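Researcher: Here's my situation. A collaborator sent me these components and asked whether they could plausibly form a single complex. I don't have experimental data yet, so a predicted model of the whole assembly would be a useful starting point for our discussion.
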Amino acid sequence: MLAASTTAIGWVIFTIITLGWVVYFFGNRRASRPELGSEIELAPNRKPYYDDETLEGPRLERVQLFGVLLLALIVVALPLYWVFEPSRQAGAQSGKESRFVGWGSQLYATTEEGGFNCAGCHGASGGGGVAPYSISDPNTGEVTAVTWTAPAINTIFYRYDESEVKFILVYGRPFSPMSPWGLAGGGPMNDQQIDTLISKLWSLQIPREGCPDGDPNCDVGVLPQAEQDRIAADAQVAAQALVDAGEYATVDEAMGEALFNLNTSSGAYSCARCHTQGWSWGDPGVPGQGAFGWNLTGGSAAKHFPNQGDMETFIANGSEYGKRYGVQGQGSGRMPGFGTMLTEEQIEAVVEYVRSL
Ligand code: HEC
Ligand code: HEC
């Protein structure tokens, strides 16, 4: 259908052009004068030109006026161009970004809306949610249906850098409801789609405190005070519950364990979701026994970090692909950094708890 109409349009243009040439040919032929032997009158260079009076008078003035007008145009237009160019470029940039976010939103949307259902598990604004999943027991083969906590991703760039997030999107989280989405991981999305999805994730981020104005993709600064207060309040409640259960004498002592297991914003801040098997589906095993993240029990974490301060720095920054950490540790970039979300005291408390495991 499209091909047929393109061909038809081509034929119409061809006919018009051919007819045009025919008309031009005959028209020109009729208007032409006899050529033979008439060069003497016809040759353009034999035509008498303006005399000096006209050449140096009105004609010169006309040409000069024209030059002045052009100069005025340039004098006005160039600075205007110079003035408007930066904002034009910024506009082009933000236009492109918002187009990317728009495309990413289509991918992010729920299945009913034709997307890949990130919104279904992580919430429409990335605040976290739950995902149905089936766990099969490796020994008995028994399958249990569970509800897996899907972390908040409106703080994902607080914890990971862009290449680390890209890795998660492309390869997913093995043995969790988060499937691989990139072609390289066996998923449905090409590189361009993963990139537009990342633009969408940037647009979902809780704006940072201490960010240069107007930078939508700023990756410096910390969680806004209100969010920090929310984490602190939730940790307080959780620590109080541990004290009430008789596990600790004071809230301060309980704080480390409370933060380790904290489920604020669906587990975005907790360590247990990666380091305690079963925590994500409400059936936690031995705390810190290891799951997606390393086993932290038996003093193994303390062995990797003889110095407590080094461990605190590691928790604050997270691991980086290929980079060494502690003693004989090599990061994979999968351990998130918490320094922009938790305070130094909170990290210290959680590190003390981890070292006691
Ligand atoms: C079926 C539910 C489900 C869908 C659909 C889903 N996710 Fe996930 N996603 C999860 C779960 C559950 C986790 C956490 C896995 C774990 O416990 O390690 C996760 C983890 C993540 C993480 C890492 C978060 C962190 O802090 O560790 C990112 C980023 C992410 N998802 C983004 C996406 C995007 C973008 C999409 C859409 C293409 C998507 N997810 C689709 C369930 C889902
Ligand atoms: C998204 C999953 C995830 C979360 C959440 C997470 N970790 Fe990790 N953690 C890892 C992974 C994976 C490693 C292994 C290092 C690597 O691959 O870079 C690791 C490594 C570590 C190590 C080093 C262990 C060793 O012996 O080398 C410590 C200590 C640690 N995590 C503590 C924490 C604490 C404390 C928290 C919470 C504040 C936390 N982790 C949250 C995934 C996670």
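Model: Some features of this prediction you could bring to your collaborator: The chain has a mean pLDDT of 88. Residues 271, 273-275, 292-294, 296, 300-301, 304, 311, 315, 319, 329, 331-332, 334-336, 338, 350, 354 surround heme C (ligand 2) (CB under 6 Å).
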